[in-house]
Write a structure and sequence with these properties.
Layout (H helix, E strand, L loop, with lengths): L3 E10 L2 E11 L4 E5 L6 H9 L6 E6 L2 E2 L5 H6 L2 E4 L11 H5 L6 E2 L6 E2 L1 H14 L16 H14 L4 E5 L7 H16 L3 E6 L2 H4 L5 E6 L2 E7 L8
Helix pairs in contact: 5-6
The chain binds adenosine-5'-diphosphate (2 copies).
The site of one adenosine-5'-diphosphate has 7 residues, from helix 6 and helix 7.
Length: about 240
């Protein structure tokens, strides 16, 4: 059974039909790529999975159960985490603090709770290294990391928070070829760990190296879905 099954989903904004009868699946250990130019409906598709918008028609099955995901928090409860292109990080704070942003473990009693800094440092380091990123120093401000490394930290954080499905919004679009390579390796690692990944991009070249299946959207419609063995890319 797939983690997510999207069945003929549609979404309208007033008179504008942003998605029409789009179907696909997200399976554990697979990368589903959603491709399309501007206006194709990619952001709308993300928002529906991420709990930011509800679909107008069709069905969204999560673990076989039809759902309307009503908020990002509800999405995370269902195991779906979204990593956006513009990451919400605090550049001057250490990597470990960003890793735990909003969910910092504390020690002690009373009104002054002490952050469990040792735990956060240790966990950040081990979670990152389990995914193949060895940071010299998790105390450095996250702003000093490369764009690719920051993207990896965001993905590792989602995995740590219990995500089974990662929705990645243009994870390589703002990166050069080398940094993209870092992120693609990381995505491959997540797949190895059995996560289902949705890779959303306007550029097929970015998704092709790690993609298992490819859905092409155009003006809100699905032009089809193919396995990697069924497609090739022109330069
Ligand atoms: P993409 O991310 O692939 O560029 P979008 O999902 O953003 O595509 O947009 C799909 C279509 O829906 C476009 O025609 C866009 O103008 C329209 N659209 C997106 N968001 C809204 C909105 N909030 N209100 C009205 N129309 C929207
Ligand atoms: P863009 O239009 O996004 O700048 P191009 O389509 O011009 O990217 O990229 C040209 C080639 O360089 C492609 O074949 C692609 O393999 C590679 N490339 C460029 N940027 C990236 C990236 N961020 N991730 C992966 N490959 C890239």
């Amino acid at each position: 059974e797939p983690l997510i099954e999207v069945r003929e989903i549609g979404k309208s904004y007033g008179n504008v039909i942003a998605l029409r009868d789009v179907s696909t699946t997200v399976a554990a250990g697979q990368v589903t790529c959603v491709l399309g130019d501007n206006g194709a409906g990619k952001s709308t598709f993300i928002k529906i999975l991420a709990g930011a918008h509800e679909h107008s028609s069709g069905e969204l099955l999560i673990d076989g159960v039809a759902r309307h995901v009503s908020s990002p928090r509800a999405a995370l409860t269902l195991g779906i985490a979204t990593v956006y292109q513009d990451l919400a990080v605090v550049p001057l704070m250490p990597v470990w603090r960003n890793f735990f942003l909003g969910s910092e473990p504390t020690k002690g009693v009373g009104p002054l709770r002490r952050l469990d800094v040792d735990f956060m440092r240790r966990t950040t380091k081990s979670e990152l290294s389990a995914m193949g990123i060895d940071l010299r120093d998790v105390d450095q401000p996250i702003g000093t990391l490369s764009g690719g490394e920051r993207q990896c930290v965001a993905i590792a954080r989602a995995v740590y928070l219990g995500a089974r499905v990662l929705i990645l919004d243009e994870p390589t679009a703002a990166l050069g070829v080398k940094q993209s390579g870092v992120v693609l390796k990381y995505i491959a690692k997540a797949r190895e760990r059995g996560l289902g990944v949705v890779f959303i991009t306007h550029n097929p070249h970015h998704a092709y190296p790690v993609g298992d299946r490819f859905v092409l959207l155009r003006r809100g419609r699905s032009m089809g879905e193919w396995a990697k063995s069924e497609i090739t890319l022109d330069e």
